[in-house]
Each structure stands twice: as structure tokens, then as C-alpha cells.
Amino acid sequence: MAKVSKKRAVANKKVDADKLYSLKEAMALVKEVNTTKFDASVDIHVRLGIDPRKADQALRGTVSLPHGTGKTKKVLVFCTPDKEEEAKAAGADYVGLEDLIAKVQGGWTDVDVVIATPNVMAKVGKIGRTLGPRGLMPNPKTGTVTPNVGAAVAEVKKGKVSFRVDKFAIIHNSVGRVSFPAGNLVDNASELLDTLVRIKPSSAKGVYMKSITVASTMSPGIKVDPKSIKEKE
Predict the structure, then answer these.
(1) In angstroms, how far is CA 212 from the centroid of its own chain?
(2) Is the pLDDT of residue 1 over 50?
(3) Nearest to 67 by CA among 193, 219, 181
(4) Could you write out the three-class secondary structure of 92-149?
(5) Exposed, middle or buried: residue 117 (CB in 10 Å: 0-12, 13-18, 19+)?
(6) How far apart are CA 219 and CA 7, in angstroms?
(7) Per residue in 61-100, pLDDT tens?
(8) Helix %, strand %, coil % of the chain (to 5)
(9) Are 94 and 130 in contact (CB under 8 A)?
(10) In sequence order, what are the beta bridge partners of 215?
(11) How many angstroms from the chain centroid is the CA of residue 10?
(12) What 3-state class would DSSP assign to 91?
């Protein structure tokens, strides 16, 4: 059994494993029990009552977090030369086509988001096996396949994040950093949860939000009462 550090032991005592906290309580507590010296990510894990194997329940989408993620995302844009200036002006970190495709084929994937114009997707498709498993493949559903590359880049830089349910029907997403005021973390988490409620599949039966857990990179998990979210349905 792994030895627990003194800081983690103290943190564990502050979190009641059997209690369901309100979102506001959870975000105040996650800041209090963070044990890292760096500005850790605050993540939310939402287990949904859906079957991801069914096409209409394989949830994915995007949400614009009001206070951003606290991390500047590196954005790559695949486009034709006529769109390059638009992408660069919006803050894209890498812009191009053939040269960047070759770079990715060589194993490079040091970016957070990949955006592409529709007219280059046939070429981008060739590196789908590299981008797909890393969650980087551009997709119209997440707004990353678009002719409006400038607007797409700007949204990502401001705090637009994508989400997708995993095979266990859980959504895992960062909603900020422990340095954020608790209220900002609540706002960001609420935006994501409200979005999940809004896109609930009509075919999903029974309890939709089964469990919600909040944690920083190295903190114990803090359970949030799903009923406090469901009231917004």
C-alpha cells in the first residue's frame, strides 16, 4: 500500500467521504485541501446515466468557460494559404498544411487543439490515426472544422473547451486552477454542468447525473450532490 504524505493525510481528514457537498462547498474545499506547490488543475468528473455505445448517447461537444481554464492552449490550424493570416491574427500557434501534416506524421503532437478548414480535411484525414487517439482530430461537432478559423481560434484562447463521454459514461474536464477564486470555479463548473443537462439525450432513461466529483491534481475527491444540479433540468 502506497504511503500517504502528511499533507495528503491532513487533506483526507478534511474531506468527508460520505458527504455530498454543494458545488459551492466543494470548490471552497478543493482549494483548501490542495497539497501541491504548483498551480494545480481543478477537474470535475461527471458520471452520466447513458450508454456511450449508442450513437445518440455518445455525448461530445464544447463549452465556453466564463473564466477560462487558467492554461493558455496551443492551437494548430490546418488551412490553405488564404486563411493563414486570419488564423495567425487570432493567436494560432502553428499555421500551415503540408509541412505540419508531415511534422505530425513524424510523431509531433505538442498542441492542445487542432482546427481545420473543411477544404483540407481530406488531407488531414491521413493523420487521423495519430490525432484521433489523442483527442485532437478536428470535428464539426466541436467547432474545430470550420471556414471561420479566426473565430474558432479566438474562442479556444478565451476558454472554449471540448468534452466527450468516455466508455464508462464519464465526462472528465478541467474547470480551472486552484489559484482561481472559488466563485470562478463554481461559475466554470456550472457552465459545463448546465451544458450537459441541456444536451441530455432524449433516449436516456432513469437518473441522468449519477455522480459528480471534484478534485485538484493531487487532492482527494470531493463528492457533489447531483440533486443540486438536477434542479436546473
Answers:
(1) 15
(2) no
(3) 181
(4) CCEEECHHHHHHHHCCCCCCCEEEECHHHHHHHHHHHHHHHHHCCCCCHHHCCECCCH
(5) buried
(6) 10
(7) 889 899 988 888 899 999 999 999 999 999 999 999 999 9
(8) 40, 20, 40
(9) no
(10) 43
(11) 29
(12) coil
Place of cell 457552465: 191
Give mean pLDDT, residues 189-212: 93
Q: At what angle do helices 81-89 and 149-158 cross, to 10 degrees?
A: 30
pLDDT-derived band at 150, boundaries 50, 70, 90: very high
- The Cα 194–Cα 213 span in angstroms is 16
SS3 call for 226: coil
Residue located via cell numbers 449508442: 54
pTM listed for this prediction: 0.74
Contacts for 216 with CB less than 8 Å, ≥ 6 apart: 30, 31, 33, 34, 36, 40, 41, 42, 43, 178
| Residue-level pLDDT at 231 | 40
Which helix or strand (DSSP H or E) is residue 213 part of?
A: strand 209-216
Task: Give the confidence band of 232 by pLDDT, cuts at 50, 70, 90.
Answer: very low
Here the cell at position 220 is 482527494
d(CA 100, CA 167): 31
Q: Which residues contact 23 (CB under 8 A, 6 or more apart)?
A: 186, 189, 190, 193, 214, 224, 228, 229
Q: Locate 79 and state its grid cell.
A: 488551412
